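TASK: fixed-backbone design
INPUT:
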C-alpha cells in the first residue's frame, strides 16, 4: 500500500483498517552484516514500510561464512549481494556474470588516520614516520595512499598494531605511530578510548565505491520489478538520513539496541554510517564509470586485482533510475507523521 502525504494519513488509516494484508515476495540478500545501523537504509526502510509497499520482504542470508558472496549469486541463493569494488573487479575478470546496479557507499570506509592533536595533515608528511596497520590486510590501503603522494612503503616504517581499541588508542597516546591505516570501526574504537582522530586519506584514494549492490543477469531480466522496488526502498531509507537523522537514530536504537549499549558510541557509529551510506552524487546510488576506471591502476599495481576490466562490462545503470523515482516531499511528510507517533 502506497504511503500517503501527511494530510491524508488519517483517511488512509481508516481505509487500511478494512484492507487485506498485502502478500509479500521474499527477496534474498547477502551483505557483510545482519541488520545494523552500519547499513541503516535497510532498517529505516523496513521500519517506515518502504519495502512492504514495494511488496518485498527482505531475507538476509547468513553473512558469517567463508564462502565469497558472489557465489551466493551464482548458485541462485541470493537475489542481490553487497560486494566491495575489489570483489566486483575480481569476479568480472574471472568471467562471472555480474552486474553492478547500485553504489551503496561511494566513499571508501578504509583510509589513513592520525591523532586529532597531530600536526600532520597530509599523507605526504608521513615520509620517515612509523605507520601502524590495524592488520596486515590494511597494508594495501597504506600503499595506495602513499603512492598517491609519490611515496612508497620503503619511505615509512610499518608495524601491525592489532584491532583492540585500547591498543590502537595507546599507539597514538604513546606516539609509537604517527598514523594508522584502518577503517571506520577502528577510528570509532580509538575515539571510544579517549583519543580524537582525523582522516588524512587522499581524496583520490577515498573516492571509490566502498560497497555496491550486484546481481546476475537473470535477476535483471526475471526480477526487474522486485529489484527496482528493493533499491527504491533502500534509497528512501537513505534519503531520510539527509533531513531527519534523529529519526534514523530512534529506529536504530529500537531495532539494534545492542549497538547502543553505550549511547555515545552508538551515535558515533551511526554518524559514521551516515557519512558513508549517503550518496555523494545527486543520483542516489549512481554508478560512476570514471571512478571505476580511475581506481583500477592502483589496485592492480598493489595486487588487489590481476587485470583491469572495462566498467561497461559490468555497470548496469537501468535500476538506478527506478531507485530514484520517488517523491521526496512525500517521504518527508511520512517521516514527520512517524515522528509524531513515535518520538
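OUTPUT:
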Amino acid at each position: 500500500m502506497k504511503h500517503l502525504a501527511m494530510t491524508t494519513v488519517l483517511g488512509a488509516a481508516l481505509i487500511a483498517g478494512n484492507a487485506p494484508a498485502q502478500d509479500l515476495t521474499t527477496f534474498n540478500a547477502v551483505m557483510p552484516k545482519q541488520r545494523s545501523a552500519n547499513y541503516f537504509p535497510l532498517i529505516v526502510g523496513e521500519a517506515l514500510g518502504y519495502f512492504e509497499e514495494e511488496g518485498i520482504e527482505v531475507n538476509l542470508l547468513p553473512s558469517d561464512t567463508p564462502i565469497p558472496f558472489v557465489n551466493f549469486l551464482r548458485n541462485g541463493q541470493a537475489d542481490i549481494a553487497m560486494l566491495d569494488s575489489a570483489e566486483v573487479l575480481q569476479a568480472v575478470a574471472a568471467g562471472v556474470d555480474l552486474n553492478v546496479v547500485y553504489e551503496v557507499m561511494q566513499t571508501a570506509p578504509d583510509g589513513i588516520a592520525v591523532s586529532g592533536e597531530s600536526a600532520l595533515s597530509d599523507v605526504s608528511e608521513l615520509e620517515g614516520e612509523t605507520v601502524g596497520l590495524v592488520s596486515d590486510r590494511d597494508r594495501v590501503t597504506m600503499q595506495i595512499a602513499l603512492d598517491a603522494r609519490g611515496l612508497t612503503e620503503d619511505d615509512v616504517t610499518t608495524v601491525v598494531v592489532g584491532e583492540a581499541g585500547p591498543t590502537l588508542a595507546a599507539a597514538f597516546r604513546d606516539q609509537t605511530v604517527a598514523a594508522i591505516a584502518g577503517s571506520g570501526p577502528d577510528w570509532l574504537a580509538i575515539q571510544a578510548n579517549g583519543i580524537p582522530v582525523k582522516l588524512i586519506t587522499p581524496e583520490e584514494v577515498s573516492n571509490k565505491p566502498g560497497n555496491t549492490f550486484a546481481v546476475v543477469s537473470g535477476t535483471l531480466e526475471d526480477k526487474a520489478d522486485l529489484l527496482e522496488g528493493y533499491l527504491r526502498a533502500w534509497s528512501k531509507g537513505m534519503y531520510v538520513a539527509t533531513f531527519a537523522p534523529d529519526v534514523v537514530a530512534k529506529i536504530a536504537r529500537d531495532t539494534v539496541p545492542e549497538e547502543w549499549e553505550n549511547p555515545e558510541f552508538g551515535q558515533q557509529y551511526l554518524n559514521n554510517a551516515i557519512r558513508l551510506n549517503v550518496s555523494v552524487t545527486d543520483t542516489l546510488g549512481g554508478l560512476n564509470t570514471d571512478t571505476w576506471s580511475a581506481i583500477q591502476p592502483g589496485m592492480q599495481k598493489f595486487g588487489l586485482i590481476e587485470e583491469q576490466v572495462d566498467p561497461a562490462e559490468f555497470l548496469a545503470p537501468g535500476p538506478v533510475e527506478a531507485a530514484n523515482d520517488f517523491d521526496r516531499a512525500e517521504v518527508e511528510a511520512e517521516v514527520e507523521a512517524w515522528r509524531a507517533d513515535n518520538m
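COMMENT: The radius of gyration is 21 Å.
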